[in-house]
Amino acid sequence: MLLLGLAEGVRLERRDDSPTDVCARWSHQTAVVGGTVYIYGGQAKTQASQKTNTWNNNFLTLSVSEDWSTSSPKLTGLPIPNGPPPVANGYLWHNNDKLFLYGGLFSDVNPVTAPPAFALWEYNIASGNWNKDDTSVSSDSGSSEIQRAAEGAGVSVPGRSLGFYFGGHLDGYTTQGWSQSIPRVYLKSLLEFDMDKKQFRNITKNGLEKAGVPERADGVLVFVPWGNEGILLAIGGGTNETFSQMNVIDVYDLGTQKWTKQSTDGPTPKYRVNPCAVVASAPDGSSHNVYFFGGQNLVPYAQQLQYDDMYILTVPAFTWIQVDMKDQAVPPARAGHTCDIVGSQMIVIGGYTGQELSCDAPGFYVFDASNLQWTTSYSAEAGGFGSNNGKGGANTYRVPQAVINVVGGSGDGGAKVTKPMKQADPDSPIITAGATNYKYTTYLPRPTIAVSTAPDGTVTTSTVTPNPNAINKGPNIGAIVGGVVGGIVFMVLILLGGAFWLYKRKIRELRASSGRLPPAAARGYKEGGEAGLMAGENRHDTIAELPGDGIHRQRRDNTGSSTDLNEMQGEPTFWGVLLSPRRSLRVVNH
Questions:
Q1: For the chain, what is the radius of gyration of the CA atoms?
Q2: pTM exceeds 0.85, yes or no
Q3: Are 546 and 509 in contact (CB under 8 A)?
Q4: Are 44 and 105 within 8 A, CB to CB?
Q5: 316: helix, coil or strand?
Q6: What is the pLDDT of residues 560-586, one digit of tens each?
Q7: pLDDT of 227-275, one tens digit each?
Q8: Cα angle vertex 80, ends 163, 365, to 5°?
Q9: Which of 30, 149, 194, 280 could covalently link to 338 via disulfide, CB atoms 3.0 to 4.6 Å apart?
Q10: Closest to 192 in 3D by CA, of 166, 163, 213, 212
C-alpha cells in the first residue's frame, strides 16, 4: 500500500507490521525498557517444514505492565524496519529511551546474504524511528576500526548508558569482503560502547593474557553491581574445538578495567553454548543470583543436545546451586533463546528446540525466580508494576530458600557468606570490594539485569533497563539538591531570626529615644515645618537615638506625657528595614 508523502512528488511506502504468530523463533535480540520487552530479528519460521527465508528483521513488543497468559502473550507487531538489516545473534544495547542494534550474523542459508559495511542502528523509543548512527572510537581503544561481530555475549549496564560485547566471531557472514575460504576467527576482546557519546572502545589487553581469558562465542555476559563500578561475569561458550569450563568464571572489574578468574563451588553445570542468564539481586544487595537456563552441547557435530536444566550461581559466594524442577511443567530443552527478568519473573522467549519439536508456539515462558517455579502466566504485580501505579521499578524479588540454605540470611537478604567459597585472586574485585561499595546505589536493590542467548550454536544477550521514572542513573541528584536547598533555607531562617531580634531591639531603642524628644520632633515635624520624615540639609540636626539599656519600659517626655512611637510618621516595619534599611530607619537616625 502506497501513501501520499507530505513532500511534493514523494510517495512513502507503508511497511507491513511484523507478524506476531510464528511456528518458532530463535537467535533474536531482546531488550527490556520500562514496561516493554522489545524483540528484534533473528530467525523464525511460520511452518514446521520451513527451511529457507528464516532470517528476518521483524520488530515486536511484549507488554510487561499488564497480566497475560503464556498461551496468549501481549504481543504487538511494529512496522518492519526499513534500514536495519535482518540479523541473528547480535545484541540490543539500550538505555532508558534508545535501542542500539550491534553486530549479528547475516543469512548463511537460502537466500544467502553478503554482509554490507558495518553500521550501528539506533531506535528512538519516543519517536519510533530507526537511524544509522555516526560513531567514533576512543583514543585508548585497542583498535581504531570496529567490525561487526556475531554470536558474542552482550550486556547493558542499567541506568548508565554503557554497553559491552564480549567475544564472538568474524567470518564471511559478518564482515564485508571476507572470503568464505578464510576460516572463522574467534574473539576474546571486550567491546565497550558509550551510548551518550556514541563512542566505541575495544579492550584487547588489561589482564586478558594474565588471566588466560580464552576466545569464545555463544556464551553469556552478565553485570553484577559489586564494587565501585560493578563487575562483568563471562560464563560458558566455546569455539569449534573447545568449550569454556563452568567451574571457573572470568571476572571483569569495570573500576580497574582488568580481568581475573574465580573458581566456583557446588554442582557445576555441564559445559555448553547458547544458554541464557539473568541476574536478580537481594533487596539489600548482599547477594546477586545468576539464573542460568538451557543451552546445548554441539559435540558430536550435527548431533547437538539441548538442555532444559537450570542453575543459580550466587555471588559473592560463587557457588552453583542446581534448581530442583521435579514435577514441574518445564519448557522443552532449548538453545538460542533469550531471558529477561522483570521484578521476580524471568521471561524466556523462543529458542532452538532441535528436531523433535516441530513448532514452539507461541514460545513464551515465565519462571518465578523467588519461588523457583514455572508458571503459566505473567503477573504485572510480581513484575513490580501493580504496586507502583503502573510505573514499574518495585523490587518484588526475594531470595529463594535454595540460596538461603547456602549463603544464610532471609528472603530480604542478609547473606552471611560475603566472600567466595574458593580461593580468590589477590586482585579480584570480589575480595577487594564489597556489596556496599557500589556507588550507583539507586540501582542496587533492583533485580533488573538480564542476558540472553542464541540458537543452534549461537548466542545473544539481553539486559533489563530500569524504568526512568523509578530509578535514577547514578547518585540521587534530587536528594542532593533537596539537601542543599534545605540547608540554604535553614541558614536563611537563622539570619532572618537574628535580623528580627536586632529589629526589635532597635525599635525598643527608638521608642525609648522618643521620650527624650520634644513632642513636635517626636511626631516627625520640624518646628514650623511640614509633617513627614525629616529630610534635607537639617536631617542630622536632632539625634533621637539613645543607647538601649536592655530593659523593656516605656519612656516619657519631659512633660510627663506618654509618647507612643506610632504617633510618629509611622513605625518602620521589619520587611521595610530588611529591604531598605537606610530609608526605613531614617526616623531612627533622627
A1: 35
A2: no
A3: yes
A4: no
A5: coil
A6: 433 333 333 445 565 555 555 544 444
A7: 889 999 999 999 988 999 999 999 999 999 999 999 999 999 999 999 9
A8: 65
A9: 30
A10: 163
